[in-house]
Task: structure prediction
Amino acid sequence: MITQKKLFSYFRKIGRNSPVRFTFFMLLILLLFINEYDRSTALPDTAFPEILNLLLKVLSLIILIILTFSFLSVILAYTLCKKKEAKSAVVDIRFSYPDEYADNRVVCIVNCEAAAPLFGSVKAHPVYDKAYAAPKFALHSAPRNKKKNQKKTKLTGKAILYPPETRHYQLKSISLCFEDVLRLFSLRRTFYPDEGFSALPGHENIAPIELVPMQSKEQLMRTDVIRRQEGEWLHFKDFEPSDDIRRIVWQMYARNKELVVRMPETMNMYASQIDVYVSFYNAYLDTLDLVGKKFSCIFLNAYKRMIWSLLQSLETSGEMSVNYVPDQIVGDFSSPELSENLSKLVSVHWNRSHKPVDYFKLGPASLCCISPLIPADELQQTVHFASPNTTFVYVDLRKSLTAKGLPGLLKDIFTSPDEAAGEIAQWKWWLSPMRARLAKNDKEIKALFHSSEVKWHEI
Result:
């Protein structure tokens, strides 16, 4: 069944690939011709119709010459580009980042070995991930290098992309649009390069958190201060008569009626590595639902932004190495411009298959980050069995959808939010039943931390 949306997309595709661009000025000229012709036929007894017809013929001849010149210039530039494509690569596309603090901003740089139409222009139109299309941007002549005898046929241009989600993107295609000076004709040549880029999470100022690092595996980095560390990664053992009763874990005894004690601590001069575990377990939002997908996108961007800011604050201390351990298998999207931790953080997404109780058992975590999308019941076992040197960081994602006051609510009522930028109407969040569920879970998580002896912070 052909819906209205499919019909509009079909006509839009035909108009995009059509060599003739039907603009407002073309329609205006056509209407003027029809109007003047009707007026001339209404005055048969005067010489005005003959004079007007003569002027119309002259004007038509001039317009025909201009249109023919514009069309031939576009055809010539398009043909030269097609011939160069058969010999070598025509388009070279690269992506760069202003800095690692940029929030979802990517610079797209395009270089092409093509000639622009005479008095015309060439525009680039990248499309990524089949659903997002960047605005067209013009390509200009690159400065000529006289030392290398470079021909003046290279065009270059750049634009800033604003992807809505903080993740990796794959470039689907990039089109070169050859346009004449009047922008009446446009021929499109599409290329399919195997390139990709990443949308960075941005940065926020976070107060430093004091952590107890683990022993580095290679033992290449020593610290100035000898730090405490558990004897083994299990942290617990059965109670024996020679053990100190002050190390008995009474929470476990109340639950299982078994006496266990914490492992003794050791002093280690190589304790210079911090293992960071960030759980992206999501038990509340349905990413397949339209409203849930919008909420999950906003929460995911805010979560990654806060985690990356936390990793940055730990890395800038200089006394320890930070190792981020993802809770899922990440793809190989390594880039020389991105650090290893940042590349892994951008690759992860919400999931329902990796529960925190299984994820935090992977090793002696120094830092465990959680969100209100994790049920408090899933965190009880993790918190009770946590090492005394483990610190929990609770990221309250609801702050990313806090009320903007009366001006913000009035803006949401009278204007539409920019969905491409990840915005959502404030009243949808206030009327959503998910808000009350997350608020209840937030209270349960904080009560769990207060009733335990673990160290935790909220950001």
The chain has two domains: 17-200, 227-458.
